[in-house]
Specification:
Number of helices: 21
Largest sheet: 11 strands, mixed
Number of strands: 19
Radius of gyration: 34 Å
Structural class: alpha/beta
Distance between the termini: 103 Å
Number of domains: 3
Strand content: 5-15%
CATH architecture of the largest domain: 3-Layer(aba) Sandwich
């Protein structure tokens, strides 16, 4: 190490073999291969992360910290020197009075939209594991990809896409991707209201849990992000993300953390426009990283090195990772470091450290003692033991309060202003819901199920037999059958379409249950029971009672028929389909 300057090495431990204490660290270029730290809680992982982060900050490096606990992030504020106060972006969602805007959907390159969608779907899938379904993923993916093409869209637009037809129409008009556009124009547009409600209710419910929380809504609901991650990376600034689960909730912490990691990755990939030797190193520290590691995280591990995004990841045990993420970690990480772990993890890690160390050695490690394979000049060393360095003492003067205040001034907005902006967005003249009242679609059955291409039936003037008032009916009165106005018609069963059951919630009364004709249609058009049909026909002919031995000519009933039915024909006893010209005899 004698030939290396101190600035080129980040120190984190000292050797303990045969009691020879020699401080060592990892070189800058070896950190591009990433670093993985595992160990039980209370073994010294966070202290190691803190020591490395402090050195990077004091050397003027670009640093990002994602901390789901809060203490690590808050402590690092005490180590920022005075000359770097303006470099810090302190992102703390729990600071509810001063929300900092962060929009993961802002200005996403068309070639990277699928990465944003995959990142969001990954965290949603992880959070909603019990409620996740293929249909939910399909619709949500098409919704996110549609919104990514719409200017100034945010995650608040997801639920509005389902509740606001005018907004949905406006968004769809901006879609250029033919596959996404086809989904909304050829598929979703043909969903019956009832099916659309059922298909989107789960998404609205889950997304609504996030956006209904003002703490989260005021951050993700602003269309313009307050900070540019690409600028932070290129300018070697400091991004400290305090995602304390105890203050904002575990699911909210996961969602925001995953979005931030996705955005950091996209910012790193955008460096393709800069020659590789001109890209400055940027160090990302993620404590308890399994909280933010979705399925797309495997791609980040394999691609980040090219763009000088250097990861240092820490967590407690292997089972916390998905299998794909675990494979990516052990397949791409250059430096592997373990504190004491459980027996199951020790058996797995034994393959990495044998023959120098075995599972029994790993489970018996003491506090701050580690085994590691260190990347040295691009080559992994043989496993050796060491002891991590003690915590670095803070400077005599802390600028933490000044940093928080300066960060608010530069990046935050007053809560009232943000809430007014979001309220204005929701109350725009075109912000009408499908229900006409601005609310989310109901989760229960609707009163009618219109189909694309339906035309309004021709109406004929008639006189109500009950009250004598003028009314309109969908058939031409013949003077023989009584007609009723809407008030009196609603007291009995409405007219039925026998040939092709009209998709409306018309009820056939039954002693045991109430069956809608839309449900009968869903049952492959199976014929109703005889007593049900008798009651329905009784009402259809104006309140008379159909008795046994009666014969009814379908041509005399006020029903609508398909054109194919007008050709006449007899009742097919196997299919149970009634055609024009048939007669029904009740026995």
């Amino acid at each position: 190490m004698a030939g290396n300057t101190t600035n080129n090495i980040t120190y984190f431990a000292e050797t303990n073999f045969r009691n020879e204490r020699k401080r060592f660290g990892i070189k800058r270029r070896d950190r591009t291969k990433h670093m993985y730290i595992i160990g039980k809680t209370g073994m010294g992982k966070t202290t190691l992360l803190e020591n490395m982060t402090i050195q990077d900050i004091q050397k003027g490096e670009g640093v990002a910290i994602i901390d789901p606990h809060g203490e690590f992030a808050e402590k690092m504020l005490n180590f920022v020197p005075e000359d770097r106060i303006d470099d810090v972006v302190y992102f703390a969602p729990h600071d509810i009075d001063w929300p900092i805007a962060f929009n993961v959907m802002e200005n996403v390159d068309p070639t990277q939209r699928h990465l944003v969608s995959a990142g969001l779907l990954g965290v949603f899938k992880k959070i909603w594991v019990d409620a996740w379904s293929a249909r939910m993923e399909y619709i949500l993916n098409n919704t996110i990809l549609a919104l990514l093409e719409y200017p100034n869209s945010t995650l608040l637009g997801i639920n509005r896409m389902f509740a606001d037809k005018d907004y949905r129409k406006e968004v769809v008009s901006k879609i250029t991707d033919p596959v996404i556009k086809a989904f909304w124009t050829n598929e979703f547009a043909k969903y019956a209201d009832k099916f659309a409600t059922e298909a989107t209710a789960a998404i609205q419910n889950k997304v609504g849990q996030f956006v209904s929380n003002p703490l989260i809504r005021n951050i993700i609901g602003q269309s313009k992000s307050a900070f540019d991650i690409r600028d932070i990376m290129d300018g070697k600034k400091i991004l400290i993300m305090n995602l304390s689960k105890g203050r904002i909730g575990e699911e909210n912490s996961r969602l925001i953390g995953q979005m931030l990691i996705t955005k950091i990755y996209l910012a790193a990939m955008s460096r393709v426009d800069v020659p590789e030797d001109e890209r400055s190193d940027f160090y990302l520290y993620v404590d308890e990283f399994q909280n933010f590691a979705g399925e797309s995280f495997a791609g980040i591990l394999s691609e980040a090195r090219k763009y000088r995004l250097n990861l240092t990841l820490a967590h407690q045990y292997i089972a916390q990772m998905d299998e794909t993420v675990g494979d990516a970690v052990f397949g791409n990480v250059g430096t592997l470091l373990t504190f004491r772990v459980g027996a199951a993890d020790a058996e797995f890690l034994e393959k990495e450290f044998e023959p120098e160390f075995y599972a029994q050695d790993v489970v018996n490690l003491g506090f701050a003692n580690i085994y590691l394979k260190l990347m040295i000049d691009g080559v992994a060393s043989r496993p050796f033991s060491a002891t991590t360095l003690p915590p670095i003492k803070p400077a005599e003067k802390s600028y933490a309060d000044k940093i928080i205040e300066r960060s608010r001034e530069k990046y935050a907005s007053a809560r009232q202003e943000v809430e007014e902006e979001i309220a204005t967005w929701h109350s725009r003249p075109d912000a009408k819901s499908d229900t006409g009242k601005g609310e989310v679609l109901p989760s229960g059955p609707t009163k009618s199920i219109p189909h694309p291409g339906d035309e309004k039936p021709q109406l004929y003037e008639a006189v109500c037999a009950a009250c004598g008032k003028k009314t309109y009916v969908p058939f031409k009165p013949d003077g023989k059958r009584p007609t009723y106005c809407k008030v009196h018609r609603s007291k009995s069963t409405p007219v039925y379409n026998i040939g092709a059951v009209e998709a409306k919630e018309k009820i056939v009364p039954n002693k045991k249950e109430t069956i809608s004709l839309s449900e009968l249609e869903d049952r492959k058009r199976t014929s109703p029971k005889m007593d049900e049909l008798r009651r329905a026909l009784s009402e259809a002919i104006g309140g008379g009672h159909v008795k046994e031995e009666d014969e009814l000519d379908l041509d005399s009933l006020p029903v609508e028929r398909n054109s194919d039915d007008d050709k006449g024909g007899s009742k097919d006893e196997k299919s149970g389909v009634l055609k024009s010209g048939d007669k029904i005899k009740f026995k």
